[in-house]
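User: Okay, second chain of the day. Same drill as before: sequence in, structure tokens out.
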Amino acid sequence: MKIALFSIQYYEKYKDTYQLVIDKLEKAKCEIWVNELFYKLIINKVKFLNEPTVYNSAKEVKRKIDMFFTLGGDGTILDSIPIIRNSNIPILGINMGRLGFLSSVSHKEIDTAINDVLNNNYILDKRALLSLKTDNNLFGEMNFALNEFSIHKRDHLSMIVVHVYIDDKFLNSYWADGLLISTPTGSTAYALAVGGPIVTPGSKNFIISPIAPHNLTVRPVVIPDNSVIKLKIQGRSKSFLVGLDSRFETINSSIELVVSKSNFSVSMIQIGNRSFFDTIREKLNWGLDIRN
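Assistant: Same drill. Structure tokens below.
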């Protein structure tokens, strides 16, 4: 089995954890691949019995890798999506970050999780993405996001106005600092921080959430993910920030933005009987009496 490791940072406190993953995979006779950035960070920190294959692009891993292990937090998984893209390679998120809604395998669970993966004892949780279309092909081939599409003002003085149309029907003109369009996966990320609802994976929805709206009666809206959302921006500033997960570009008000469901999904590996509800209950400390 060929397994790719992916990370963007090295933490000395997790040195033994990195080594544990490597040792487990090598003992199982797996062929290990490592992204170039992470390889440069760990090459003098951990030991490989066999030299790993170093990769740096989506083309290098497509149709060659069986599994993708991310070592970090949810942000690491987001950074891996441009590499995985539409390859349909399953992702196991090993959590070395904080909350970890996506990277849900903890340090204590690594040994069991890897055994389960090697023995095909897991299920795949399909996660929908959204895509962005613009006349100027703003993000090129990487015009997709697992969590959210975002619009932000660039200065700190004035709000922007975002005119939103759903399937060519006018929804609203949002006077705000920005706007989010989130997938169900993204509902536990930025959208949650701006007051959006938690939406279960597979519910086939988008969430439209204003960021610091001028009118407090303007609330997040949940719509079907087969909708086509068109956006036009106005403001005193001549430029605005547009984001897909952690990637950002600058645009002006002449650019029309069209957001819709992507034509591919990503597959998250789910170990054991752990459900989405188990994850949010644990991560958000639901049901706990924290008064003492």
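Helices lie at 15-27, 36-42, 58-61, 74-84, 110-118, 190-193, 276-283.

User: Thanks, on to the next one.
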